[in-house]
Write a structure and sequence with these properties.
469 residues, four-stranded mixed β-sheet, globular, Adenine-n6-DNA-methyltransferase TaqI, Chain A, domain 2, 19 strands, alpha+beta, 15 helices
Length: 469
C-alpha cells in the first residue's frame, strides 16, 4: 500500500448509487470506479459463468486438521501461505480419510480454478495448474470454478486478478481485526465479456501455468538424477530420537546440539565423506558468506532498489513489494544479488524455509535482499551453481546435511562457518553441467511464467480502458 496521502475527487452520482456512503474506503479502493467503467460493457454476473459445488464459488467449513507423514495415507494440503509458494513439494499431508469424506471432498483442486485467499490477507490469487491437481485446500481459500462452456478459465483469472477485478473482489471485505470475504460477496461481481481477446488471454495464462508445472518437474528431475547418479543414502522409515555420542566426537566437532548428531544427518555425512567419487567441502568450491545487519529504509519504487526478504524468495512470483533506499542505505553494494547464486534463509522453524535453498534467477539479479539470507557463490567453474543448488535441495542428502549445521532451539539459525564444512560429493563434470542447465532453465521458466501472466492482465486492462476496441 502506498504511503502517500490519498486524495480523490468523485462525482456526486457515485454517492447516490452507493447508498450515500461518506466514508472514503469504497471510493479510493477503485471498486466503484471499476464498476462504473464496466457499465460500458456487456457483463455477466460471476455466478453465471461458474459451475460445480455451491454454484462454483465456495470455500469450506471449519474442520480439525489431522496430518499424516506418509503420502499413501494423505493428500497434499494447501494453506493461504503455501498457496503462493513456487515449490509445493514440501506441503503437509492431510489425512486422506478426512479429505475424501463427504464433508471435505469438494475441497479438492482441479486445473483452471481461480484460488483466492479469503481470510487474513485477502485477495491473493493463483491459477490452479496441473501440478496442483489432487491437492486439497483449507477453508480460507475460496475457489472460483469456471464453466468452460461459458468462459475461458485463464481469462476469468486474468480479469479477477487485474486492477479492475481485484478491487471488486475486495469490496465485499468485512471484519475489523481479521478480514474476510465470503462467496456471496462476489457472486454478483460483473465480468466483462471481451470476446475479441478472451481466448488470447486464456492462452497466455495457461502457458504460464504450463511453464510453472514444467519448472517444478525439471527441479524434481534434477534432484532425483543426483540421487540416482550418486546412489544417495537409503532413508529408513523411522529414526531413533535418542542417540549415544562419544565424548571424543563432541570434542572433535565442538558441537553439543542434539540435532547435529541426529541419526539421519550422521548417516548422510558418513555416506558423503566415504563416497567412492570423493567429495569437496562446500567452502572449497564456493564462497559462503552473510552480510552485516543494516537498517531497512523503504521508499517508493521510483526512488529505490527492489528488495526481497528471505521469505519472499520462495514466492510464486518474484515481484518486489518493498524498495530499499539507494541514498540512505550504507554500503548498499553488499546487499545486491548476482545471478546464479544459491541462497539460504538464515533462520526459521524446522520444516519451514530454513535449509531450503533458493536460486538467484534473472528476476533477482541486481536486486537487494535481507541480511537474513546467506549467499553461496560458486568459485570453481567445473562445479557450476546449478549442481550445488540441486545437491543441497535433495531431501535425502542436502536437507539433513544443512540442518545439522544449524544452532539454536526455538528458532534455529545457519552460519557460514559451519556451512563451509558440508561435504559435496563429486560427480562427472558433464553430469554436473547437465544438472546446472536444468536448474537454470527451470528458474527462468518461472520468470517467463510471471511475464506471461502480467501480459495477460495488461491485455485485459488495456482493452477495458480502450472501451473494448
Amino acid at each position: 500500500m502506498s504511503r502517500r496521502f490519498q486524495v480523490k475527487a468523485v462525482p456526486s452520482t457515485w454517492l447516490e448509487s452507493n447508498g450515500r456512503r461518506l466514508d472514503c474506503g469504497p471510493y479510493v479502493s477503485g471498486a466503484i470506479e471499476a464498476r462504473e467503467l464496466l457499465r460500458r460493457f456487456t457483463t455477466s454476473p460471476l455466478k453465471r459463468v461458474t459451475t460445480g459445488h455451491e454454484g462454483g464459488i465456495y470455500n469450506g467449513p471449519q474442520f480439525s486438521r489431522n496430518y499424516v507423514d506418509d503420502s499413501r495415507f494423505g493428500v497434499p494440503f494447501l494453506t493461504t501461505s503455501s498457496l503462493l509458494q513456487a515449490d509445493l513439494s514440501l506441503v503437509s499431508y492431510l489425512s486422506r480419510k478426512d479429505a475424501e469424506s463427504s464433508k471435505l471432498r469438494f475441497l479438492g483442486i482441479t486445473e483452471g480454478m481461480t484460488l483466492i485467499t479469503c481470510s487474513g490477507t485477502i485477495g491473493r490469487m493463483t491459477y490452479a495448474r496441473k501440478d496442483m491437481e489432487g491437492m486439497w485446500s483449507n477453508q480460507d481459500i475460496m475457489k472460483v470454478v469456471p464453466n468452460r462452456d461459458c468462459i475461458s478459465p485463464g481469462y476469468l483469472f486474468a480479469f479477477l486478478s487485474s486492477r479492475y477485478g481485484l478491487p471488486l473482489v475486495l469490496n465485499g471485505t468485512y471484519g475489523a481485526i481479521i478480514q474476510h470475504i465470503e462467496p456471496q460477496h462476489i457472486s454478483d461481481l460483473p465480468v466483462p465479456r471481451l470476446v475479441r481477446i478472451e481466448d488470447q488471454v486464456h492462452a497466455l495464462v495457461q502457458q504460464a501455468a504450463d511453464h510453472r508445472t514444467g519448472a517444478s518437474e525439471r527441479l524434481k528431475r534434477a534432484a532425483t538424477s543426483i540421487a540416482e547418479q550418486l546412489g544417495g543414502p537409503i532413508l529408513r522409515e523411522t529414526y531413533s530420537i535418542a542417540q549415544i555420542v562419544t565424548s571424543s566426537e563432541i570434542v572433535r566437532t565442538m558441537r553439543m546440539e542434539g540435532y547435529y548428531f541426529n541419526q539421519r544427518a550422521r548417516e548422510a555425512d558418513v555416506w558423503a565423506t566415504t563416497h567412492h567419487h570423493g567429495f569437496w567441502n562446500l567452502g572449497d568450491i564456493a564462497d559462503v558468506f552473510d552480510v552485516p545487519l543494516f537498517k531497512h529504509i523503504y521508499v517508493e519504487s521510483e526512488h529505490g532498489m527492489p528488495f526481497f526478504t528471505s521469505g519472499e524468495l520462495f514466492k510464486l512470483d518474484r515481484k518486489p513489494e518493498k524498495y530499499l533506499s539507494t541514498t540512505q542505505t550504507k554500503d548498499l553494494d553488499k546487499y545486491i544479488l548476482g545471478r546464479n547464486w544459491v541462497l539460504l534463509a538464515r533462520s526459521g522453524q524446522l520444516g519451514g524455509i530454513i535449509c531450503r535453498p533458493q536460486f538467484s534467477d534473472s528476476s533477482l539479479e541486481g536486486a537487494a535482499t535481507s541480511d537474513h539470507v546467506i549467499r553461496i557463490v560458486s568459485k570453481n567453474e567445473d562445479v557450476p551453481p546449478g549442481y550445488i543448488y540441486a545437491y543441497l535441495s535433495t531431501p535425502e542428502i542436502g536437507y539433513p546435511l544443512l540442518m545439522r549445521t544449524s544452532s539454536g532451539t526455538s528458532i534455529p539459525a545457519l552460519w557460514p562457518t559451519y556451512l563451509k564444512s558440508i561435504p559435496v560429493v563429486r560427480a562427472p563434470i558433464p553430469f554436473m553441467k547437465m544438472i546446472d542447465a536444468e536448474v537454470k532453465s527451470a528458474f527462468e521458466m518461472r520468470v517467463e511464467a510471471t511475464r506471461l501472466e502480467d501480459e495477460a492482465r495488461d491485455l485485459v486492462e488495456r482493452t477495458i480502458e480502450e472501451g473494448g476496441r
